[in-house]
Amino acid sequence: MGIAESVKCKDCGAPLSLKAGEVIITCEYCGTAFNMASGKDFFLSHAIIPNNHDEASVRSIIKRWMSDGPLKPSNMASASKVSTCALVFLPFYIVHTNVTTVYKGAFTRGGGSKPRDGNLHREYYWKILARRGSKFPTKEYEIPLKGKEDFNLSKIPPYAKYLNAEFDEKDAEDLAKVQLQDHQKFLLQHQVDEFDFIDHKFQREDIEFVHAPVWRADFSYGNRDYQVLLDGATGTVIRGDIPPPDESVKGFFSEMKRAFTGK
Fold first, then answer.
1. What's the start-to-end Cα distance of the chain, in Å?
2. Domain ranges for the chain
């Protein structure tokens, strides 16, 4: 897609700085969103989820996370050094849709073949991160939509960044359909081993565009670097890297002590 490096906001006249691949651009001066690929105004509801944590509280939450839970080295909290914490507002499409899957097949586990047919209906608020090639754990992130507000630039702290979307709502809907087809089939796997027929019907209810706050913290443990992702609204750890256990003799006895004393 060929777009100019800089155009003006249709609402306030401020320059819009564009990066390669970005499609939905939010003006940094007035907060208005535009679809640069089609040249049309952006009509979707645009919301933001406010950030409720500063860097100090994020570091404190991460240290508690390091101290609790299975599979973590006993000295993870004391031996880890959190180097950087950065807040970014990520762009998501929330695709509200009803899916009905009609299927026919057979259950073959345990020998024999038992016919299976029926339909599976589910309602979804399916999350699509609007960035291509991202490894962000979208499925693990429960976006706190109850706390959303109309998009307002004042809700973004000066030290935070926000990312524009790299595709529009039509692409998001198409991607959601592909993912939901796989998800519906996954839900049916305990009933059907072999499908003779499967068909998915989608009834789209709504699509919403949301910027949500995510903190990324980098930390070191031993000689390696790791990362933690944290929900800036709720303070919940979305995903964190866990270093391998200390397999030295000292580490073994430390883990034994922890198992018996809880310390």
1. 57
2. 1-43, 44-261
pTM, two decimal places: 0.86
Cα–Cα distance measured from residue 27 to residue 149, given in angstroms and rounded to the nearest whole number: 17
Structure confidence by residue, pLDDT tens digits, 141-196? 999 999 999 999 999 999 999 999 999 999 999 999 999 999 999 999 999 999 99
Rounded CA-CA distance 73/75 in Å is 5
Retrieve residue 107's tokens: 């259950």
What gap in Å lies between CA 211 and CA 207, rounded to an integer?
Answer: 13
Write the pLDDT tens digit of every residue in 196-230: 999 999 999 999 999 999 999 999 999 999 999 99
Strand partners, 126: 95
Q: How far apart are CA 175 and CA 178, in angstroms?
A: 5
Q: Contact at 8 Å (CB) between 114 and 106?
A: yes
Name every residue whose Cβ is closer than 8 Å to that of residue 252 and which is 6 or more positions away in sequence.
246
Please state, in angstroms and rounded to a whole number, the distance separating the CA atoms of residues 18 and 28.
11
Burial 223-236 (b: 16+ CB within 10 A, else e): eeebebbbbbbbbe
CA nearest to 58, candidates 211, 263, 227? 227
